[in-house]
Amino acid sequence: MRNTWTQLMNRLSLRPSSEAKGGVRAHRPTLHAAVEAARQEWLGARAYFETVSEPELVDHAIFLVEAAEKKYMYLLKKVREQGLVAPGDETSAVGLR
């Protein structure tokens, strides 16, 4: 599992990629974009949880919410470790954690 997260973080480099075809430099998704995508995934999972009523789907929804939340928290931690400010997180900008 740790290796998977390491690979993910390596792909979410803040540097532009020079691997684009035709010599045009393509930009990899930024860590901030990954945090925002994870946040949206987490919010979507929470909304899904609110709509289900079948016991099997409730279990599934709980799993999705917990997984999305862990991913989001992990990416927020990585942003803060790099001294960056996460989208919508003014507290890390002033050192309040």
Output the keywords:
mainly alpha; disordered C terminus; 4 helices; two-stranded antiparallel ribbon; 97 residues
List the helices and strands and how they pair.
Layout: H1 2-11, E1 16-17, E2 26-27, H2 31-51, H3 55-81, H4 90-93
Antiparallel strand pairs: 1-2
Task: Explain what this protein looks like in three dimensions.
With 97 residues, the protein is mainly alpha-helical. It contains four helices and two strands; from the N terminus they run H-E-E-H-H-H. It has helices at residues 2-11, 31-51, 55-81, 90-93; strands spanning 16-17, 26-27. A two-stranded antiparallel ribbon has the order 1-2. A hairpin with an 8-residue loop joins strand 1 (16-17) and strand 2 (26-27). The protein is elongated.
In summary, what is this structure?
By secondary structure, this protein is mainly alpha-helical. Helices cover 64% and strands 4% of the residues. The chain has helices at 2-11, 31-51, 55-81, 90-93, and strands at residues 16-17, 26-27.
